[in-house]
């Protein structure tokens, strides 16, 4: 962008600005790849469980058998919904958006933890584990209470994803569903300096605490230009109804200059590296639940939109309908993203704290000239 001589170059939205280094993940739009600590996310999704990926993000290496057993034991020990967190959730109306509920619950956990202001790596890892372990109960319980259902206690004999689904629905679905859920958790876990992660790093850079940083990140993720898009995708599907309505719906939406949620990305311009893996899981779910109508709607909308605008689906496009098929309410989709991304956020909080500089950019003033009162 060429600017008048007196105006410094301004990168709206920090587009294209490199603000720091990170060793956690690498997004490469040229090769359409995403690495977590050096490992392609597709390989992790195909061979590892979400707990192993969480360990990798925090510690830099995949766990060996003993490390994984210890990690899983810690996660299982923190699964139960704490009475003060449940009481706080119960104070909120069932009409509250679940992202507001999750944000409040994390805030309550922070306010109740005597180690909140201990920013050592050990204390932050312990807090990260407590949020990682607690979030499934929070997300599951909030959906259940909105449905007029009771809290389901955790099951210690289940892995993370199977237990999450059990606490959500009161039963463990077939392995094919658990696997698709686990893949979604792995794919959502980390994506470098996205808006919510950057929010967490900004908060950490002031020497504020991990819970404050995660609470802020949840606020950033809620917006439909970021995590809120997975919910918005399903609302679009509901609006369109069936594949034969796609063309007139899209004609009208584009004429109104509407953003089509689940498409486009700040970094990837030729397709999101995570989409093929999540689409494969969605296809499995579509076959399992026998919903060829949903597949047709999905393919017709993406085919038409890519052809007309050259803008590709992002991860929220396949994950929204996948969560719908699993039985989640549409407004619960973004809290599921929170449960996963908390691993990436906390890895970044720990990285930021280890090599901190206050994040404080400049602005160019373009208001009225100086004047007297
Ligand atoms: N629907 C319609 N038009 C779009 C879309 C879309 N989804 N995405 C981009 N465009 C258009 C813009 O209108 C703009 O057109 P113009 O130049 O004629 O004004 C052009 O493409 C560039 O778009 P920007 O919004 O300026 O690009 P940016 O890099 O800021 O956008 C963003 C990235 C915000 C994700 C955008 O693509 C978008 O709003 N998508 C929909 C929301 C969404 O799906 N978000 C999820 C992101 S991924 C994640 O959080 C997992």
From TrEMBL:
SUPFAM superfamilies listed in its UniProt record: Citrate synthase (SSF48256)
Active site: 265, 316
Single biological process term from Gene Ontology: tricarboxylic acid cycle
Pathway the protein takes part in: Carbohydrate metabolism; tricarboxylic acid cycle
A GO term from the CC aspect: cytosol
Keywords: Acyltransferase, Transferase, Tricarboxylic acid cycle
Residue ranges of coiled coil: none
Reactions mediated catalytically: oxaloacetate + acetyl-CoA + H2O = citrate + CoA + H(+)
Gene Ontology molecular function, alphabetical: citrate synthase activity
Pfam families in the record: Citrate_synt (PF00285)
Family affiliation: Belongs to the citrate synthase family.
NCBIfam families: cit_synth_II (TIGR01800), PRK14033.1 (NF010636)
Designated name of the protein: Citrate synthase
């Amino acid at each position: 962008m060429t600017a008048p001589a007196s105006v410094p170059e301004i990168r709206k939205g920090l587009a294209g600005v490199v603000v720091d280094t990170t060793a956690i993940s690498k997004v490469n739009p040229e090769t359409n790849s995403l690495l977590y600590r050096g490992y392609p996310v597709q390989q992790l999704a195909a061979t590892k469980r979400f707990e192993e990926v969480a360990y990798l993000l925090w510690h830099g290496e995949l766990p060996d058998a003993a490390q994984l057993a210890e990690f899983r034991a810690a996660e299982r020990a923190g699964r139960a919904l704490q009475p003060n967190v449940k009481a706080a959730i119960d104070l909120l109306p069932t009409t509250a958006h679940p992202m507001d509920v999750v944000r409040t619950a994390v805030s309550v956990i922070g306010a109740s933890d005597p180690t909140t202001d201990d920013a050592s790596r050990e204390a932050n890892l312990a807090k990260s584990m407590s949020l990682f372990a607690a979030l499934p109960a929070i997300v599951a319980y909030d959906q259940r209470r909105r449905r007029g259902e009771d809290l389901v206690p955790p099951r210690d004999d289940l892995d993370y994803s199977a237990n999450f689904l059990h606490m959500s629905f009161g039963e463990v679905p077939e392995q094919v569903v658990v696997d698709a859920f686990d893949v979604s958790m792995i794919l959502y876990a980390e994506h470098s300096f996205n808006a919510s992660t950057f929010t967490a790093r900004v908060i950490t850079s002031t020497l504020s605490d991990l819970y404050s940083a995660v609470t802020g990140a949840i606020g950033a993720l809620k917006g439909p230009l970021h995590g809120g898009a997975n919910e918005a995708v399903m609302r679009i599907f509901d609006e369109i109804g069936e594949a034969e309505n796609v063309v007139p719906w899209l004609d009208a939406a584009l004429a109104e200059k509407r953003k089509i949620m689940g498409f486009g990305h700040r970094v990837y311009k030729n397709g999101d590296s995570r989409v093929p893996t999540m689409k494969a899981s969605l296809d499995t779910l579509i076959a399992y639940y026998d919903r060829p109508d949903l597949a047709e709607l999905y393919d017709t909308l993406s085919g038409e939109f890519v052809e007309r605008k050259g803008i590709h689906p992002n991860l929220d496009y396949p994950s929204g309908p996948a969560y719908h098929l699993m039985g989640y309410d549409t407004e619960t989709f973004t809290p599921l993203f929170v449960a996963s991304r908390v691993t990436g956020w906390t890895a970044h909080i720990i990285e930021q704290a280890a090599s901190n500089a206050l994040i404080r950019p400049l602005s160019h003033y373009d208001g009225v000239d100086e004047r007297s009162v």
